[in-house]
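User: What would this chain look like folded?
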Amino acid sequence: MIGSLLAAVASSVGYGVSTIMQAVGARRARGLGAVLQPLVIAAFVLDGLAWLLSLAALDHLPLFVVQAVIAASLVVVVLLARVVLHARMRRIDVAAVVAVVAALVVVAAAGGEQPAVHPPDGFVAATVAAGAVVALGTLAAYRSGPPALLAVLSGLGYSVAAIGARAAHADGDLLDTVLQPLAIPIVVGGVAGALAYLRALERGPVGTAAAIVSVVEVVVPGVVGLTALGDVVRDGWALPAAVALAGALAGCVVLAASPANAAAESGDTPDGDVRTAAPTH
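Assistant: Here's the prediction, encoded as C-alpha cells.
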C-alpha cells in the first residue's frame, strides 16, 4: 500500500510541477512557439511519467483514493505559483492546503490497499461506449460550447480514462493493459479530457473550470469504483471517508479559484498578456 500511495502522491506532484513549468514556458513565447519551449516539452514528458505513476497506483488502490490524491495537485500548483510565479496566495488558500492534506490522510486510511478486480460482464463495452460519447460530446461542444459544459466533459474524459485504467489492471501488467480493449477508453478519455479542458480555459474563468474538473474526476470514478469495481471502504470508516472526501473537494474548489492557480493555468505575464497553458492530467 505504501508504494502505491507514494506513486499516487508522486503523480499528483508531477502534474502540479508540470503545470508550473508550462506556465513559465508560456511566458517565454507566443502561440505555437510556447509548445516548442524546452521547459514545456519537459513538462509534457513529466505529465507522461505522472500518468504512468497513476496507473501503478490504480493497480493497488481504490479509485476514490487515487483520484482524490491526483486532484490535490492543485495544492502543488498553488504553492509553487506563489514561489515561482510570485502569484498572490490568500489566507483561505493556506487553510485549504492544510484541509486538503489532512483530508487525504483520512481518505487513504479509509481505503487501504485493494488490488484491482475483474470488472463485471458488460463493463468493458460500457466503458468503451462512454469514452466514445465523451469524445463525440467534446467534438460537438469544442467550437462554441459553454465553458462549464467543456469543463464537465473534461472531467468525464479524465474519469473514463481512470476507470478504464483501474479495470484494465485487473488483467495483468502494463503491456496487457495496452493490448486490451480498455486501452481505447483510456486513450480516448484522456485526449478528450485534455482538449475539453484546454478549450474551457480559453473560453471561461480558470477557477470555474479547474473546480468542475476536480469535483467530477473524483466523484464519478469513486462512485463507479465502489458500485462496479469492488472498491470498498474499511469497516467503520464510511462516515470519516465521506467527510474527508467532501473536505478535500471543498479545499480543491477553493484552490481552483485562487489567484495563484489562475496565474499558473492561464500563463499570465507581468505585462498583462495571457497565454493559455496546456492542460495536465
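The CA atoms of residues 121 and 143 lie 37 Å apart. If you want, I can go into more detail on any region.
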